[in-house]
Amino acid sequence: PKRNWSDKILEGLKINKSFLPDVYESTVVSSKVNKSASHLTGLVEGTPIVGGASDNAAGAVGSGIIKQGLISDSIGTSGVVFASSDTPLYDKEGRVHSFCHAVPKKWHLTGVTLSAAGSLKWYYDTFGPSKKIENTYPHVKGYELLNRQAENVPPGSGGLIFLPYLSGERTPHGDPYARGVFFGISYPHSQDHFVRSIMEGVAFSQLDCLSLMRDVGISSDKIVLFGGGAKSRLWRQIIADILSTKIVTLNIEEGPAYGAALLAGVGAGIYGSVEQAVDRTIREVDQIEP
Fold first, then answer.
1. 220 within domain boundaries
2. Known catalytic residue: 55?
């Protein structure tokens, strides 16, 4: 693959190639700050501008996911399972998405749960922590209270099942009209059960993504977890158990911003390659076995 605009697709869509910008690898200096931009931004004239990357690809670089056999899982508003590959890999039904990676001569697959930590935020904003848990832990605030609620419930949430399709779904359904569901509600279920079922439902949705990647040849003995949801040790354990894979966290919490900075560092000559930048800056700090 030439990692450039597709002449076949452009012809099919009747798009003039001259209308499109040049395509650069993510580590290449594509331009420099000119006098006008310097005046507007305060950046020094002549500062190099590096190609950069999309949020997910930059997040993968910032999490060290740059080689075949490495997988990350970002639990932010959406949940993204991301796998690096040495060659382009495709799901024939388009349930996971194939892209050029931010690393030269590498590709990646992504599977997306549109409402991951976003599902927990919806619950928090709509219902909030239970009065019982607030009274039990008066000095605990915010989402940690939801963690305490979920800890009160054993795995399986008493049979309460949550489908996290609050804004439609991408993987594996590709359906903007899919909607969220709590299934199996019964009298014994408390607010605690609903919180844990959200965490479990999101994890099972991420398993949908991972299973499709395994079907096209991606495998790994561990998954790097980052994003707001990764701050919850309970949620990390739930994900490890449901994905049946070791979960690790890193010294870097903001993967996308950090990855973009590393790409800029390569373009500016601070690092000789993306691999060198990752090796020098990123390390594992915690792991959870299923």
1. yes
2. yes
Mean pLDDT to the nearest integer, 191-201:
98
Residue 150 maps to which CATH number? 3.30.420.40
Residue range 210-245, pLDDT digits in tens: 999 999 999 899 999 999 999 999 999 999 999 999
Q: Helix 143-151 crosses helix 191-215 at what angle (to 10 degrees)?
A: 90
Return the pLDDT at 260: 96
Q: Identify whether 266 is part of a domain.
A: no
Range of the domain at 106: 64-252
Under a CB-based contact definition with an 8 Å cutoff, are residues 225 and 239 in contact? yes
pTM for the complete prediction? 0.91
Per-residue confidence (pLDDT) for residue 2, from 0 to 100: 83
What is the count of structural domains for the chain?
1
Q: How confident is the model at residue 255 (pLDDT cuts 50, 70, 90)?
A: confident
Q: Which of 7, 22, 55, 221 is catalytic?
A: 55
pLDDT digits (tens, 9 = 90+) for 7-23: 999 999 999 999 999 99
**Residue 168 located in a structural domain:** yes
* Selection from 127, 82, 81 nearest residue 102 by Cα: 82
The pLDDT value recorded for residue 1 is 65
